[in-house]
Amino acid sequence: MNIRKILKISLFSLLILIVAIIGFGYWFIGLIRSDIPREDVSQVQFTDLPYLAEDSTSYRGKILAVVTSTAQIGESTKSTGYELTELSRAYYVFHANGFEVDIASPKGGKPPVVIDDDDIGIYDYAFMNDPVANHKTQNTIRLEDVAFADYSAVYFVGGKGAMFDFPNNLIIQSLVREYYESDKVIGAVCHGPAALVNVSLSNGQSLLENKEVSSFTNEEELFLIPDAGDLFPFLLQDELVGKGARFKKGTMYLKNVVKDGKLITGQNPWSTWKLAEEMVEALGYVPKYRPQTSEESAIEILLSYENNGYQEAKSQASEMLTSGMAINKELIAVHSITSVMQGNIGRAISLIKLLNFISE
């Protein structure tokens, strides 16, 4: 066979591959495309949401939410701040269950915020349109001006900036120590547990000694930022373990909440809803019923797949669809793509099959 013929066959094969890839791409996009036009929710008000507007709960006290004041990741040019979704969703869980929420930061005033348009949903838009919440985020209380005794619980919001101004903040250390030793509730999500790493109790022991906790994992961090070890002062999972914690790692980018007494930690943004409701429960109340979001439905299906396999996940998806629940197909698609990037082709194929089933 001559070179010219080999070249023709190779080019023809390449053309077929390109056509197949393009065809698969169109098919894949079709799986996650909805036939129902998305309602514009960017102007939604919290009074439009039954969870927040109906059967309001009587006043039960105050919870302090703490966000980062750091706007840049170390010496890099990468911007950061607190994660809007990790504040807004917890804020409304607390609000719906009768708690007033104040927002504080190390420097006070208007802290930097990270808003990912692909992740925000109806509650996040409602939060941004809420004049009271908006005023609080624009005028956070400086930590040194916080009256510790006014609050029943503290919640440390995630965001990569927390890695820089939470760990060595003496006021945060004092706040956490006082709350822990007073049997108050302490919650932290994603990078929020950076607030715990340098806390010593009155007896000199590390707060984290032998405590079960979670946070954004090394795997999650390094997948997004391969040079995170150079950019951050430490990898949070490693630092928590180094201070004596028993780290409880869940599946990458899926909900995982760990409760050790009244210390409650969540692995990532997808843990926020459950973590906030666990905090309400730890405060002695049954959390108000809240309709599950489409994102949460997708997370439940993905967790079912991880824990029980494809058939169980398919059965759960079927039950959700039959009951009229919405499922965020884009989130399942993202996990299938992540699986390919990790070289886990079997998981990717199974998730694509689930997407196909849900779409049909």
Keywords summarizing the entry:
alpha/beta, two-stranded parallel sheet, Rossmann fold, 46% helix, 2 domains, single chain, 360 residues
What do you see in this structure?
The chain is α/β, with parallel strands linked by helices and 360 residues long. It folds into 2 domains: 46-282, Rossmann fold, CATH 3.40.50; 292-360, no CATH class. 46% of the residues lie in helices and 11% in strands. The strands form 3 sheets. The protein has a 7-stranded mixed sheet, sandwiched between helices. 39% of the residues are buried. Mean pLDDT is 90; it is low at 6-29 and 34-38.
Task: Give me a quick take on this structure.
The protein has helices at about 5-30, 50-55, 85-95, 120-130, 130-140, 160-165, 170-180, 220-225, 230, 235-240, 270-280, 295-310, 310-320, 330-340, 345-360, and strands spanning about 60-65, 80-85, 100-105, 115, 140, 155, 185-190, 210-215, 245, 255-260, 265. It has about 350 residues and is of the alpha/beta class.
Query: Percent helix among the residues?
Result: 40-55%
Reading the helices and strands in chain order gives: HHEEHEEHHEEHHEEHHHEEEHHHHH
At CATH level 3, the topology of the largest domain is Rossmann fold
Q: Rough shape?
A: globular
Our count of helices gives 15
User: Biggest sheet: strands side by side, in what order?
Assistant: 5-3-1-6-7-11-10
Total tally of structural domains = 2
Total beta-strand segments: 11
**What is the structural class?**
alpha/beta
Strands, helices and their partners?
Elements: H1 3-32, H2 50-53, E1 61-66, E2 82-83, H3 84-96, E3 99-105, E4 113-114, H4 122-129, H5 131-138, E5 141-142, E6 153-156, H6 162-165, H7 170-181, E7 185-189, E8 212-213, H8 218-224, H9 228-231, H10 236-242, E9 246-247, E10 257-260, E11 263-266, H11 272-282, H12 294-308, H13 310-322, H14 329-341, H15 345-359
